Amino acid sequence: MLSNSEIVSVLEMLRNEHLDLRTVTLGLSLLDCASDDIKRFNDKIYDRITRKAEKLVMLCDLIGEKYGIPVVNKRVSVSPIAVAAAPFSSDQMVLVAQTLDRAARAVNVDFIGGFSALVEKGIAVGDQALIDALPQALAGTDRVCASINVATTRAGINMDAILLLARQIKAAAALSADRDGIACAKLCVFANIPQDIPFMAGAYLGVGVADAVINVGVSGPGVVKKAIDRAVETNPDLDLQQISELIKRTAYKVTRVGELIGREVADRLGVHFGVVDLSLAPTPNVGDSVGEIFQSLGLHSIGVPGSTAALALLNDAVKKGGAFASTNVGGLSGAFIPVSEDLNISEAVRNGYLSIEKLEAMTCVCSVGLDMVPIPGDTSDETLAAIMADEMAIGVINKKTTATRLIPVPGKKAGEHAYFGGLLGESIILAVNNAQGENRFVRRGGLIPSPIHSLTN
Predict the structure, then answer these.
(1) So what's the pLDDT on residue 15?
(2) What is the pTM of this model?
(3) Which residue among 55, 282, 316, 452 is the one 20 to 30 A from 106 at the CA level?
């Protein structure tokens, strides 16, 4: 339980430390909308979304105002479209994406996720159609987000899917070249994707989840930074174990706030409450950065030696504090390190402290992976696929979720600037080892088998 002083500290978080509820996401099943008639299917999913999510934004604003805790993003996630719309062609999948976009606009949510496929062990007909549709679907809509799961610890890594997605990412970037390839910012490629992510672009509603469910994503990197700064100012000799305990207590408070709001939204909508995702999700705003926490811990910048250990400490402490606060922890839950979405991380790239290789090393201990990373537009398909395969391997071997959100910026090279705007931010383009010549490894295709420790039955 919280003491009086800790309740006062929560109020201080709200006033001065960027504490908010980063997202409330309404997950909706579209599986019973199935039809082999594209017009009937689109009409049914539009009706389902607009009817069920009609009051979502209003209720989030109302309940946020009641408690003085702003809900920054309101979102919808749906069943994997590759499953729900399996009978349709790639051209028809584009029409489905447009319908999702119209529905999202109608209910005024920021994003709608679930233009998704699960292909870790093979590509079915619906999966292939959806993947073929990705460039047009993402470039031609504003609010539709996509996720493709290409690997699991139990199944291995689908290298055919990874190489195919590399080509589609390059095509999506080309179709949105006038906006620095922003279509790619709405696509996550996953290993071990959870079924209940509230954060975009990965959110979708798993097939084992209820018809309608509220998942919430808390945040608060600014809150964690301020807590560390205050403690260190009082006692400069705090050791790392003491700092870990401080982060745990802070994560506990933030999680309780998130669950309070999420449960009330779910009750008012008459749907199930799902999970609290504990992820520290930064924004491009000053004071709302995961990167700044590294400096509060004593490092010169994120990316310098010691960064991976610091991130491991941070991620573990956040999970422990949140797990004590709620029995409904899920999603990704930990610390995000998206390059363009975090001003401090973007500056670390600019100043030469953070490379893509160090970023990959850090993803071994964080929640996601290579997130919102702009790379040169001339990066080859094979190199792009190989980078994704490396990241998937980290997730598969370590039995954790990893993902990539890579943006090959058309016409730009390493060291130049990419601008995506709003929550997506901006960044210097990172250099990649774009080895010349054919990469026969990724072109061999097939499945990289699951590791021996996957045999747990």
Answers:
(1) 54
(2) 0.91
(3) 282
